[in-house]
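Quick one, tokens below:
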């Protein structure tokens, strides 16, 4: 676990919510200078309360859904902002009582004591692109749920599911109509197919926007990622924008940890008691590399043979995780050095 080291004379803890925030400003000795609630997340009132200490102030808040506006406001004012890792923070501070006032004061004191585990403040310029990417992924998952619903309805009627026919929805729908005898079953299938078609259109539109922005800003890195077996257009976009840049990770181990591809250990008295930390990191990267490992085994013979050796050694489930971690290592060094994918390094050296 890494901690943020504050260099300012004053520190402000913010317990942020959707419609209010509780702030606490302390000096280096821990003396409380301001402790109040700000309704409506009124930034003008916030700046008024911290005005005397803005010249040497660091603001910290936990990583929740609406931290963007506070981070952008602090950066616009030239004030240091720290995004605290919520899960790590939960493990650090506790107590018998918990409320907004106490939480804001604890944040301020932890920052003063250099005990804030920081999260990455994703650049404001790239946030809209990452938002589009995550929106696309959500639509893909919802479309998959609808497709599964269509198949389950056929199984419930005692019929084998009709093949999807790739992206040709017309043929699929016609085959479904031939099997649906009850009028209400036909209506259900027609509505589901209509929703699937709408998701197709919206996903295609999002992909076009993502590719347009990528061609302008990160075309070289995007093409490098697609030289890796198992990584196509969608997975390359996911890795590219969830990772942001390889330079922000000091070592490849930091990147693997962020991608949830390694777990922490629990040790006491020199003995390993277990593992922990499986949910600490970026879930989208973990999903992307897991998918890439599965696809790579199917699409490339050498990787398939290497994966079989891993399965014999570790078992199928762990072997997939090992292969995903190997692919993540390759991505890290490729993007950091600007080099293409080297299959021999992955298969021969790793073996």
């Amino acid at each position: 676990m890494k901690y943020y080291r504050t260099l300012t004379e004053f520190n402000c803890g913010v317990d942020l919510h959707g419609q209010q925030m509780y702030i606490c400003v302390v000096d280096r000795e821990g003396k409380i200078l301001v402790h109040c609630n700000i309704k409506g997340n009124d930034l003008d009132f916030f700046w008024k309360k911290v005005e005397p200490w803005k010249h040497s102030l660091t603001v910290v808040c936990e990583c929740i859904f609406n931290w963007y506006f506070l981070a952008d406001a602090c950066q616009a004012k030239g004030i240091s902002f720290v995004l605290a890792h919520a899960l790590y923070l939960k493990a650090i501070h506790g107590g018998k009582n918990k409320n907004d006032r106490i939480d804001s004061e604890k944040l301020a004191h932890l920052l003063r004591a250099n005990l804030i585990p920081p999260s990455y403040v994703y650049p404001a310029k790239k946030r809209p692109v990452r938002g589009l990417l995550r929106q696309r992924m959500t639509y893909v998952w919802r479309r998959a749920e609808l497709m599964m619903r269509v198949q389950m309805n056929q199984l419930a009627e005692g019929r084998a599911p009709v093949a999807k026919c790739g992206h040709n929805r017309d043929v699929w729908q016609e085959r479904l109509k031939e099997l649906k005898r009850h009028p209400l079953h036909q209506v259900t299938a027609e509505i589901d197919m209509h929703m699937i078609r709408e998701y197709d259109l919206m996903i295609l539109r999002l992909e076009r926007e993502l590719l347009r922005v990528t061609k302008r800003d990160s075309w070289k890195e995007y093409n490098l990622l697609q030289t890796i077996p198992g990584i196509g257009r969608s997975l390359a976009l996911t890795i590219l924008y969830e990772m942001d840049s390889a330079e922000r990770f000091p070592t490849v181990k930091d990147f693997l940890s962020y991608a949830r591809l390694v777990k922490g250990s629990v040790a006491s008295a020199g003995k390993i008691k277990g593992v922990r930390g499986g949910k600490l990191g970026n879930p989208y990267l973990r999903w992307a590399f897991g998918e890439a490992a599965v696809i790579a085994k199917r699409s490339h013979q050498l990787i398939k043979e290497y994966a079989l050796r891993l399965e014999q050694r570790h078992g199928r489930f762990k072997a997939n995780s090992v292969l995903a971690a190997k692919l993540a290592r390759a991505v890290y060094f490729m993007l950091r050095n600007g080099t293409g994918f080297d299959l021999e390094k992955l298969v021969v050296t790793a073996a």
